[in-house]
Structures are given as C-alpha cells and as structure tokens.
Amino acid sequence: MNSVAIVTGASQGIGRATSVRLARDFSAVVLAARNSDALTGVADAVKSAGAEPLICDLDLSKVESAATLVKTTLDRFGRIDALLNIAGAVPQIDLFEMTDEQWYAGMELKLHGARRLTILAWEALKKSKGSVVFMSGSASLDPKPTFAAVAAINAAITALAKAFAEQGIKDGIQANSIVPGPVMTGRRRSFMEKWAPTHNMTVEEAMKEFPKEAGISRYGQPEEIADLLAFMVSPAAKWMTGTSVRMDGGEIKGI
Predict the structure, then answer these.
(1) What is the pTM of this model?
(2) What is the pLDDT of residues 171-184, one digit of tens each?
(3) Which architecture characterizes domain 4-183+221-247 according to CATH?
C-alpha cells in the first residue's frame, strides 16, 4: 500500500535522520525545509533507502507555506499518512535580554508553523487514519532563565499535541509529542562553540564536559530519535495517543 510521510526540518539533524529512517517504512517521504541544497542530499539518501522523495523548499514560519506544502503533497501523492513536525529553532537567550521580536520568531516556526500545518493536513490524515508527532524538548520540564523561550515554547507544543490528540480520538488520528534531551546535531555543536568560552574551555573539552553538567553519560544521536519517531508513526504504536514521550539519557530525573 502507498503511504506518505511529511517531515519538516528535514534538511539537517533529527529531521534529516528521521527522513532517511522513514524511507524504510513509507513509500514516499516529503522533505520540507528552507535549504534546497541540503534537501537534495537528503532526497538522495531517502531514495537509496527505498522511498520516493519530494523536496519542498519553503519557510513554515510564513503563513502561506503550510497550505503550499499540503497542496504539493496531495497533488503528487494524493494522501498523507504521517506528519512529523520537527522544524524549529528557538534562540537560547537570557529571559531578561530576549526581545519581543525574538520571542515571536521562535514561536512562529516551531509552534505556529506546526499548528497551521497540522490543521491543514487534518482532513487528509483523517482519511488515512494517520499520525502526527510534534517535537518538544527537555527544557520544557526544567526551565531556566538562560533558555526560557525554549522551555516555554516546548511546553506549549506538548500542550498543543494533547489538544490535537483529543480531537484525534474522534477523527481517528493519532497525535503525540516527543521530548528529546541533548542530541548531537550541528545546532548543538554551535551551542557548544558559544558555551565553551564562557566556561574557560575549548569546544572539544566542552563536548566532553557538558554531558556531565546535564547528568547524562553521553549525547544522544539523531538516529536514535529517528528510530523512536519511526515507532511512534508505525502500526505497532497505533493505540498510543495524547502521549509525551521523553528520550533524554536520564537528564530529567523527576517522575
């Protein structure tokens, strides 16, 4: 049977790894991100893994992009079986220094972009009895002033996913969120390059030290999160909905 997954933020990190992983389970993977050059490489990897790729070079922080993505997918494949909302980078700026504009920019892509896209894909997901996953993060469970926006927006995403899940029970759509801890991506390395000098370390020293600061043995890998996401949109997980799944190497110690 033909099956189609949309992955946002597909050009790098967890989004890239998830796109390639889903190519083993879906006949087509739609790759949405703002970097067309990077998406070309992801498309090649998806094709090699066994699925037909479709590149959608667009910015989901813009209101019109969600409709474009859904229409492009349906025009090409006629269905949507899974939507994985991974796109979104929120600035890690101190609560007392972050401007309104920076708050709005952080919310527009990761929260509102995912909300708009899910609403517009809902009818297609209803027809396929499909699945939606939202990307939150462990900062939502342990907020600090240095990354208050990350924490607040991730917490909102977890709540949003539960709201969609409530409607999904009526409509036959599964909706969940994932809460990853520190994962070694390009974005994480950029954070280390800023974090290291403030702690009188080289970047390589910081890469070894930061997991200890987080109370974990090592960083997670994008492929590990991709495997979890693949399970969450698989037939084996169909009874799981309204759930926030944490995978963080033990970073959050609370129950």
Answers:
(1) 0.93
(2) 999 999 999 998 98
(3) 3-Layer(aba) Sandwich (3.40)
